[in-house]
Amino acid sequence: MKGIWRFGDFLPETRYRITLGEGNTPLIEISKGVFLKDERINPTGSFEDRFSAFFVSYLKSKGIEKTVCNWDYDRILSLASYCARAGIKFYTNQTGMSLVLLGAETSSKEEDALLKNLDLHVGEKTTMYEVLLNSYFDSVIMPVGSGSHLIMSVKAGIDLMERGEIDRLPQFYGAVPEKKKDSVASYLVGHNYFGHELKKLMDDGFVKLMQISEGEIITAQENLGREGILASPSACISYAGIEKVKGDDVVCIIAGDLKMEKASISETKLMILRYIYRRPAHGYALWKWLSGLKRITPQGVYQHLYELTEKGYLRSVKKEGREVYYITELGKSAIIENS
Question: Are 128 and 200 in the same domain?
């Protein structure tokens, strides 16, 4: 069988088995004992395809002809794709060319209550089946959004223990954005719909949560980029927690790819913010660097700096007769929000 249905014996029976070839994603060792489970390779670029494959198969099998989703963009895009495959009407409050091509319709209708039925997230178990059936890890780090992927991954490990496929579980870690005022990152991975179930797993010792700052998220995203991996901030937050776990062999779930469809500031401004995040700079030094990458005048750079400062993304300090620009907390949030 293809897709998540390779693990059909582990999943509830459905009449239809919808697939776009999800799953079987690579496990990449990027340094000694540190591995990435690369969920970007799924059909729509995120682990959500594992969820969608089962959820849409369930809808089709029950004769349900439509569904509404207003969660994060990765889930919306994934569900729209699988609904298109299954011939199910899909509605959302989001817009975009990808959704138009998939036949999604814009609607402000209430979200489908079935999305909050944890039992219908079982497709997400298959991530951990693939990880633990291949090798053992001391620790697994996962991003926490709704909480379903982490919960289902722990349950997948317990399934394998009960079947005698493995003899012990790794320690599971959930990486969550640090909560602080006006932080985009604190809302980065959505609402924790399944907090009660997650807390029970924490109380039982299966899961530990770690808070990740905006700066750590940005640095992790850039470090992964140096490894040739373009991941969204919410997807790479697990890698940002690598220094906070114990154990010799660690796997980080990289949950989704980089999607730039919804950027609210220009690419040039985003490049400037990222540069100044790494090193405060004056305008001329910034122009020297930027002009090596694209055609831009010094006046153009200073105009961008002025606009970024006016919006509160940068602040300037006069040193030795020059204005040196520093990134603000709002600027860090802008980097995350636009990538």
Answer: yes
Q: How far apart are CA 322 and CA 138, in angstroms?
A: 51
At residue 155, the pLDDT reads: 97
Interacting residues of 250 by C-beta distance below 8 A, sequence separation 6+: 33, 34, 35, 137, 138, 139, 140, 141, 242
Instruction: Decide if 234 is inside a domain.
Output: yes
Question: What is the pLDDT at residue 261?
Answer: 56
Whole-model pTM above 0.70? Answer: yes
Confidence band of 117 (pLDDT split at 50, 70, 90) = very high
Whether 151 contacts 201, CB under 8 Å = yes
% residues pLDDT > 90 (the chain): 65
* Neighbour count for residue 245 (Cβ, 10 Å): 17
Give the DSSP letter string of 15-42: S----SS-----EEEEETTEEEEEGGGS
Q: What is the mean pLDDT of residues 129-149?
A: 92
Answer yes or no: is 1 within a domain.
no
Q: Confirm whether 36 is domain-assigned.
A: yes
Location of structure tokens 């990435």: 36
Buried b (16+ CB within 10 A) or exposed e, 76-98: bbbbbbbbbbbebebbbebebeb
For CA atoms 38, 41, 44, 47, give the dihedral sign: negative
